[in-house]
Every structure is written in structure tokens, then in C-alpha cells.
Design a protein that fits this description.
Elements lengths: L2 H21 L1 E2 L5 H10 L5 H12 L13 H10 E2 L4 E7 L5 E6 L5 E8 L4 E4 L3 E3 L8 H4 L2 E4 L2 H19 L11 E4 L9 H12 L11 E5 L3 H10 L3 E5 L5 H7 L8 H11 L8 E7 L7 H14 L3 E7 L13 H13 L4 E3 L24 H12 L10
Parallel strand pairs: 1-2, 6-9, 9-10, 10-11, 11-12, 12-13, 13-14
Antiparallel strand pairs: 3-4, 4-5, 5-6, 7-8
Enzyme class: transferase
Keywords: 4Fe-4S, Cytoplasm, Disulfide bond, Iron, Iron-sulfur, Metal-binding, Methyltransferase, rRNA processing, S-adenosyl-L-methionine, Transferase, tRNA processing
InterPro entries: Aldolase_TIM, Methyltransferase_A, RlmN_N, RNA_MTrfase_RlmN, rRNA_lsu_MTrfase_RlmN/Cfr, rSAM, rSAM_sf
Amino acid sequence: MSETLVNTDKREEAASAPAEAAARVNLLDFDAAGLKAWCESIGEKPFRARQLTRWVHRHLVCDFNEMTDLAKTFRAKLLKLAEIRPPEVIHEKKSSDGTRKWLFAVGNGNAVEAVFIPEDDRGTLCISSQAGCAMGCLFCSTGKQGFNRNLTTAEIVGQLWTAERELCRDRGITDPNDRVISNVVLMGMGEPLQNLDAVIPAIKIFLDDDGYGLSRRRVTVSTSGLVRQIDKLAEAAPVALAVSLHAADDGLRDKLMPINKKHPLGDLMAACRRYLRVAPRDFITFEYVMLGGINDSLADADHLAALVRREHVPCKFNLIPFNPFPQSDLEKPDREKVLAFCRRLNELGYVTTVRKTRGDDIDAACGQLAGEVRDRTRRAERLAQQKAEAAVILYRPQHS
């Protein structure tokens, strides 16, 4: 064969390699039903899906040759047709308090963050569901930078897959039943309920006994209050629900969270009541970011209690002292006011906690996950307008 023909063959082989890789399915994209359907589509028995699920999510294996109980012919198919590809880790930080943060590349210059928070009785992973966020909440670092796109199921599940794998490796854990991460919260970058097509299959993988085996009580979805999507989550994958509230009246909440103009508090409270019919817990968690001089008075606490009492929503409150970030123009609340607010709600009969600040030294605290996003929403312009509109109500006189 001539040298010209040899070189041509090599060029054609090199050109076809990326095409073959692009054609491979990412097994992290499939829940149990999806993986079963895919196995059947390539002529394999349905039980192969369960075997694969256990290898991928219990054993955290990405090399098909290590899946020793699979038939060699099946492994050969997998090598040609499939891959296990989590998003690439481009940076990792470790806090002095044990918190760890990963920055994942998700293509086209976008990156998202996930955070592991160790506690004495649990290990919680906070994961992202979107590159950026379109909600535009005034106090959120993620929202400040705008929105690019929804993450895929593989990109959502891949955050847990990667974190669990690295944490187990660091601790020398080899037993697939011995897990470091016991809780998953979708409270990172993005609004999970805007991405239900990818989030619901991810949740099903988290709950699958052949996958991560988490209980519904240990998976929490946080939302800014998308009413119709709350109902869809209740139907498809009811897990613990956390609602970002942050104000007890529509006037202030409109300014802090533009979504309230579309889904006001009355509609949101009704959706919470409906969700409780199928929820794994008998209460809704209301997240409440405390902003200095804005929503941190005892009168605000009284209004908050009056709201949930009037709307008949069993709940507990999680108070989150605001973490200032550049260009936020908002202030951290006084520590004594936070504690007084908490005491008042407790006195009124509501279980109330103040979220511990974790990972401050690596910018991993609540509201500070920023990643890197190529904004498609002209967020900077909209934020300037939003601040101007909000200025008349923010920093209003406070009652003691």
C-alpha cells in the first residue's frame, strides 16, 4: 500500500473517532426505565439494565471491562455504544471546616458548582441544576450573572457520582454499601423546577435502590416558587420540598424575587398544601434569607408566622443570614437580630433554625455559588433596572 493511501486511512480513522464518541450514549443520562429501554433497543435483556445501574451508581465504575459479571459480548457492545461521562472537574477547593467545592465544566465556557458539607450525623451534597439562573433574585450571586442553559440529567447526576467517588477514594472506602453522601439537596446554581425534564430522572436515580438508594426524605428540591412545577414534581417524584420565601407580603417579595409577580404568595401557599398530600415529610421547609434592614425585624417575624398560620401550611423555617458578594448592595444582618428573629418564631410555635455558615473561605456558602456562565439573558442590564425599582421599598424603616 502506498504512503499516500496509508496517510489517507489514518486521517479518515482520526476523523471518525470524534464522531464515534459523539454517538455514544452517556449512561449517566438514564434512570432505571430509560436504561432498561436502551438495553432492549440494542438487543439485551432487561435485567442487564439493573446490572449496569449497580456498576455505575453503586460501585461507581466507569470502565466497562471492570464490570466482571457482564457477558463479554455485552461489554463489547458497551465499549462501542456507550460511555460513563460526568462533567469534567476543572477546579476543587477544600475548606478548613471540611467543606469541599467542585467546579464542573459543562461546555461552551460554562461551569457550575457543587458543595459537600460534612456533619456529625450526615454528609450533604448541594448540587446545581442549571448553568446560571433566570430567576433574578436580588440577593443571589448565581442569579446576578444570568442564565445560559439547563443541565442534562448526566450533568446533574454526574456531580453526585464524582463527589461520592472522590470522597470514598479519599477515605479508602471500597464497600459500595458504605456511602459518604447521605443527603442530596438541589440548592446549588439554578432553579430545579425550571428543568424538570432532567431533574426528575436524576431524582429517580438518587432514590433507586440499585442506584444511590437515598430515601425521599433525604433528597430535597429547593424552589423559588414555581406553582405549576411544584404540582408536577408532586406527581412524578415527591421528595422533600424547600421553598425560598424571604418575605411575608407580596409587595416586598415582588422586589426581592421577580417570580412572585407571576406566582404570588396565595398561589404558592396553595401549591404547598397540595404538595403535602404526597410529600415524605409532613411539613414544608421555608428558606428565609435575612437581609440587614430589609426583612429582619421582629415585625417581619410576626408577619411570617401570620402568613403560614392563615394559609394553614405546616412548616419549619430555615433562617439564612445573607452573605454579601460584590455588587450586591445588600447588607449582612446583625447577629443579635437574627437570633431574636429565631426566638420570636420559636415562641410563636414554629421550629426555626439558623443555617450554619460553612465554607466561607472557599466561597461555598449559601447564595455564593457563581460558577462561570455565558449569559444569554442580558442579566446585568435587568439587574440594574430591578435595583432601581426595588430602591423605594428596600431599606424601609423597621419596627422593633
